[in-house]
């Protein structure tokens, strides 16, 4: 289609640079500088989408991020398509493809449009009311509702683009580069504040930059001309960084703001390649100046949503900035002077403005005379009562407004048109201001919410603070800046400003129609199809809180978050309920101000960078030997080592047998290690463990159990006394960081008098655990000079030795029940010592085993794993580990809680062993345990915590927590599964080598 | 996201810190002397005030020191920060 709606060339559009793009499969042309919206309008395409609920045809309404209707799908035929992009923000580039949403099969013929005729049946809360009965049917309804609802399509492939995060610190952050933001940033930077100026659009200057109203002059020049010069000087200012296409999404406490910088969305495909698409700026500013401007309000009248009905200010921008006419026969409908500026701008470009319909009785502004001189008819005290045109506006009907504004009188006049500009006044964009935690106040006269309080380090300037007139903006800006930045002079104190002054406005939130409201469709929230009558219905049904009305009617819950219609919703609620708007308050403004992509939020933290991994010094060996890994906390631990295509079960059975029959080796480097030194180290251990430590000799090891103050098991591990005042504590792999934190907490806050120093040395040592009857022989080969006799090196003791000049600590401790040695070497020698063990163990068929075999072996011995057999509700008594709880010690963490009535109850869940009647059935971990079958309701006695097939016993074994399990030994219980009941017998928790003979073989 | 003035390191982002609940709840010196109710009071009962609250914070990804903070929970204003063992500032 030809560019028949271009009006005189615009300086902001490069008409020498033609760009082709596709919309709904059809190819169009635009120019560099166009947005998708301006290019579509230039091609006379107004129907761009369907509404959410009634599927009514909708057109472009705005020229900015507040757009409710023109939300489109980018790259609709690609599996990396992006939904819900605003056509008013997309800068066109060669090859852009977009399509309308919410319609099937097409935006021109949409089957869902039938909802529009069913509208009387679809009031507010329709879904809540209708689909809730019969209750069981919801699942069936849901499928269809979800299918036809929703905005756009999600991409099905992973996002190939690159995103980034950047931290920024600055003295002054200015949000918004309209006239206020530019002047504020200039002042700040010139006064040596490191200043950052952010603007969501790609050009600076806000709405002033395309202002052609000759009534508004600065220093005797058009305001736009004057501002252009100011902007051109910005690049010479030191300390000033400017980022365009950057939208502030969130304003958190202490001037922490998140902004999305859009880097490549406006580029052609070939130029996007390998570049960062969007960057999340994490900004910590010492001071913040909000200059976020104001959003024009629509007017709420019957059928106010047809394609061709556009905000008056947007029509002006399309005309002045993009050089595009929104129609050939335009009418304006207004309650204030601003529509006259738009009308004049169109008239000056030779466009036909048929009439201005003003709900005011008159206005004294100079601009009125110009409109009269231009021969444009003004209908004072009139209101639009209806509009026609299904896919494009074709006419409006107007009637005389009664004095009180609640009804219309006289005869109806119909005026044909293809475009209607609506001007309902301005709403300060206070979103970020309120996000920061500040409170608004309602200006009853001007019907706007404006900032009330400010923290010391934030101000709002310009129209977002309620200053709409040029002289007022500059005057207040100068005044505020001097105080805020503590400077003597503002750069803009001596400029001469002229502007037309009539700010009269007649505010009617819901304009009357000649029809009863039930027969009208005055849309308040365009995107979610909430009408004024839905709001009134909600009030009739008893909703009072605006937060409830919002959720019930879905007003303000679309992707635009009600930027256009929220004020009207509040106004209609206040008028209907007879309360003051100031008392009603607003709904909560939440981040983000405009939607963010997930990519921007996660940045580089995707795929392998999603979380950090920790690998042990022996990791390369495990990889080389084809280990399968499991995640334990952040650690990658060798899980099992399959050979010749073994399954996990087969590998684990083989490893488990080998470890008991000859020798096995485990990488235990991940266990937490805390070095404890100080003259009160022993006393400290006495306080944090349940057992006694005073008598532990130097060179000896002891197992300890640590509780929380509530008496529940928190962690366990072996601690070794290295010297008089020196211990090394081991913790569970997953608990290491928390245990250190807890111990530091007690030392710093409860027992600061103790002389104890804690150092995390987990990463400093690598640990190879040799286990099995031949482990002694292997160790002897590695350290021949060490006397390994039971007398010199008994179980639960430690030796410091040299292996090839490397100082190592060897502990004879066992988590498998076998004779076992843990060799701790400085981390950098970990792999070498491991290799040495493997070499030395060859003649004994040493078998590396992973965490799964370790779990199996310890389960055969009934050793607990904290976090698997315990879950924060188990005391040592519940674990039947009474032996480890000192009765003599006066106090230790959690001791008092062991004597609370609840922890002393007899029938708590206790740890027991379970043996299946059929020794080949392995129970599922987590399976529930009952004592009776065929009983309803059945009492759940507990659950299985650990379960394995033991190759050494050739039967299935399990640990479980069972109510009163202590007294159930030998009792038969049942594990009901989906298709069978498994019979089990309660047993001792130790299944293998009950006499503990094997640790000394 | 708070900006927290660690008494040992200076201003740091909230990400470096861990909150540790209500401050000035001293662990009883002689727990065994306490009744179940008295122990439960120490163990479980927290004020959770809307308004000015005394809290423990830990510079977990920094100096690892614990300190106290006075914070207004209704608007997240940090009123004061002081070291462990120091007396809270008078309101």
Question: How would you characterize the overall build of this protein?
Answer:
- The complex is a heterodimer of chains A (1001) and B (91).
- Chain A has five domains: 1-155, 2Fe-2S iron-sulphur cluster binding domain, sarcosine oxidase, alpha subunit, N-terminal domain (Ubiquitin-like (UB roll), Roll); 162-267 and 274-294 and 428-498, FAD/NAD(P)-binding domain; 300-422 and 507-584, FAD/NAD(P)-binding domain (3-Layer(bba) Sandwich); 670-766 and 790-857, 2-Layer Sandwich (Gyrase A, domain 2); 905-1000, Aminomethyltransferase beta-barrel domains (Elongation Factor Tu (Ef-tu), domain 3, Beta Barrel).
- In chain A, strand 18, helix 9 (338-348) and strand 19 (352-358) form a beta-alpha-beta unit.
- Chain A is 21% helix and 28% strand.
- The radius of gyration of chain A is 38 Å and the shape is elongated.
- By secondary structure, chain A is α+β, with helices and mostly antiparallel strands.
- By secondary structure, chain B is mainly beta.
- Chain B has one domain: Folate-binding fold (2-Layer Sandwich).
- Helices cover 10% and strands 37% of the residues of chain B.
- Chain B has one helix spanning 36-44; strands at 3-6, 10-13, 18-22, 52-58, 66-72, 77-83.
- In chain B, a hairpin with a 3-residue loop joins strand 1 and strand 2 (10-13).
- Chain B starts with a strand and ends in an 8-residue tail after the last strand.
């Amino acid at each position: 289609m030809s560019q028949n709606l271009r009006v005189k060339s615009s300086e902001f559009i490069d008409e020498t640079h033609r760009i082709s793009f596709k919309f709904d499969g059809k190819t169009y042309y635009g120019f560099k500088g166009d947005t998708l919206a301006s290019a579509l309008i230039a091609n006379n395409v107004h129907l761009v989408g369907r509404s959410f609920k009634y599927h009514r045809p909708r057109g472009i309404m705005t020229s900015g991020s507040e757009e409710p209707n023109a939300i489109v799908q980018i790259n609709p035929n690609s599996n990396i398509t992006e939904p819900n992009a605003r056509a008013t923000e997309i800068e066109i580039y060669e090859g852009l493809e977009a399509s309308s949403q919410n319609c099937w099969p097409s935006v021109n013929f949409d089957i869902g449009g039938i909802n529009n005729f069913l509208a009387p049946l679809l009031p507010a809360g329709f879904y809540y009311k209708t689909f809730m009965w019969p209750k069981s049917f919801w699942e069936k309804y849901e499928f269809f509702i979800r299918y036809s609802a929703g905005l756009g399509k999600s991409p099905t492939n992973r996002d190939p683009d690159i995103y980034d995060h950047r931290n920024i610190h600055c003295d002054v952050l200015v949000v918004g580069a309209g006239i206020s933001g530019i002047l504020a940033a200039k002042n700040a930077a010139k006064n040596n504040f490191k200043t950052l100026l952010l603007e969501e659009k790609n050009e600076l200057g806000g709405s002033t930059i395309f202002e052609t109203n000759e009534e508004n002059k600065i220093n005797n020049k058009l305001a736009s001309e004057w501002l252009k010069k100011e902007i051109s000087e910005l690049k010479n200012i030191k300390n000033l960084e400017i980022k365009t296409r950057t939208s502030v999404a969130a304003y958190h406490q202490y001037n922490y703001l998140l902004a999305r910088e859009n880097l490549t969305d406006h580029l052609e495909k070939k130029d996007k390649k390998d570049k960062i698409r969007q960057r999340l700026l994490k900004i910590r500013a010492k001071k913040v100046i909000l200059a976020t401007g104001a959003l024009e309000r629509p007017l709420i009248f019957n059928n106010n949503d047809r394609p061709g009905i556009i905000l008056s200010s947007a029509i002006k921008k399309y005309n002045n900035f993009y050089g595009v006419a929104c129609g050939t026969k335009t009418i304006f409908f207004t309650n204030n002077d601003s529509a006259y500026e738009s009308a004049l701008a169109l008239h000056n470009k030779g466009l036909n403005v048929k009439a201005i319909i003003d709900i005011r009785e008159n206005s004294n502004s100079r601009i009125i005379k110009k409109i009269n001189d231009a021969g444009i008819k003004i209908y004072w005290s009139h209101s639009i009562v209806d509009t026609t045109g299904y896919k494009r506006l074709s006419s409006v009907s107007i009637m005389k407004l009664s004095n009180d504004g609640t009804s219309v009188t006289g005869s109806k006049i119909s005026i044909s048109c293809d475009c209607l500009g609506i001007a309902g006044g301005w709403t300060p964009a206070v979103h970020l201001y309120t996000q920061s935690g500040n409170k608004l106040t309602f200006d009853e006269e001007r019907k706007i919410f404006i900032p009330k309080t400010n923290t010391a380090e934030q101000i709002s300037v310009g129209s977002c603070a309620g200053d709409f007139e040029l002289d007022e903006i500059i005057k207040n800006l100068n005044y505020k800046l001097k105080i805020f930045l503590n400077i003597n002079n503002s750069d803009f104190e001596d400029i001469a400003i002229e502007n037309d002054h009539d700010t009269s406005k007649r505010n009617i939130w819901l304009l009357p129609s000649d029809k009863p409201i039930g027969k009208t469709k005055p849309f308040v929230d365009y995107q979610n199809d909430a009408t004024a009558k839905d709001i009134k219905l909600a009030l009739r049904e008893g909703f009072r809180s605006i937060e409830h009305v919002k959720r019930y009617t879905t007003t303000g819950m679309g992707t635009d978050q009600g930027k256009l219609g929220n004020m009207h919703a509040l106004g209609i609620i206040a008028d209907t309920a007879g309360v003051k708007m100031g008392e009603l308050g607003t709904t909560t403004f939440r981040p983000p101000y405009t939607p963010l992509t997930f990519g921007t939020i996660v940045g580089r933290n995707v795929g392998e960078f999603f979380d950090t991994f920790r690998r042990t010094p022996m990791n390369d060996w495990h990889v080389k030997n084809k280990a399968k890994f499991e995640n334990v906390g952040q650690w990658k631990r060798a899980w099992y080592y399959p050979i010749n295509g073994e399954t996990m079960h087969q590998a684990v059975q083989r490893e488990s047998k080998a470890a008991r029959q000859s020798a096995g080796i485990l990488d235990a480097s991940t266990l937490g290690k805390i070095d404890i030194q100080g003259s009160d180290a022993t006393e400290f251990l006495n306080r944090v463990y349940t057992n006694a430590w005073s008598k532990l000799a130097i060179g000896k090891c002891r197992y300890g159990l640590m509780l929380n103050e509530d008496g529940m098991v928190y962690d366990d591990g072996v601690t070794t006394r290295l010297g008089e005042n020196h211990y090394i504590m081991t913790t569970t792999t997953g608990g290491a960081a928390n245990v250190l934190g807890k111990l530091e907490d007690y030392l710093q806050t409860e027992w600061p008098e103790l002389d104890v120093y804690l150092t995390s040395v987990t990463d400093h040592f690598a640990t190879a655990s040799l286990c099995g009857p031949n482990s002694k022989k292997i160790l002897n080969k590695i350290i021949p000079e060490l006397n390994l006799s039971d007398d010199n090196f008994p179980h639960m003791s430690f030796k410091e030795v040299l292996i090839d000049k490397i100082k190592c600590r060897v502990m004879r401790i066992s988590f498998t029940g076998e004779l076992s040695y843990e060799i701790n070497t400085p981390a950098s020698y970990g792999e070498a010592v491991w290799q040495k063990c493997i070499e030395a163990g060859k003649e004994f068929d040493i078998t590396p085993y992973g965490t799964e075999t370790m779990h199996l072996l310890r389960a055969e011995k009934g050793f607990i794993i904290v976090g698997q057999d315990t879950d924060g509700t188990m005391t040592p008594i519940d674990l039947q580990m009474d032996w480890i709880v000192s009765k003599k010690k006066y106090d230790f963490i959690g001791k008092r809680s062991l004597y609370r009535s609840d922890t002393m109850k007899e029938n708590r869940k206790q740890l027991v062993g379970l043996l299946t009647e059929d020794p080949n059935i392995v129970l599922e971990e987590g399976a529930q345990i009952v004592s009776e079958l065929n009983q309803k309701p059945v009492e759940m006695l507990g659950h299985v915590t650990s379960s394995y097939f033991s190759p050494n016993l050739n039967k299935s074994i399990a640990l479980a927590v069972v109510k009163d399990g202590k007294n159930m030994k030998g009792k038969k219980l049942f594990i009901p599964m989906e298709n069978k009941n498994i019979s089990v017998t309660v047993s001792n928790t130790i299944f293998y080598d009950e006499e503990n003979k094997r640790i000394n073989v | 996201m708070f900006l927290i003035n660690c008494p040992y390191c200076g201003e740091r982002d909230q990400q470096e810190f861990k909150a540790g609940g209500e401050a000035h709840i001293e662990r009883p010196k002689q727990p065994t002397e306490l009744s179940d109710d008295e122990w439960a009071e120490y163990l479980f009962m927290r004020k959770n005030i809307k308004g000015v609250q005394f809290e423990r914070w830990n510079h977990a990804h920094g100096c690892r020191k614990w300190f106290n903070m006075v914070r207004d929970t209704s608007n997240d204003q940090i009123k004061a920060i002081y070291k462990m063992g120091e007396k809270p500032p008078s309101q």
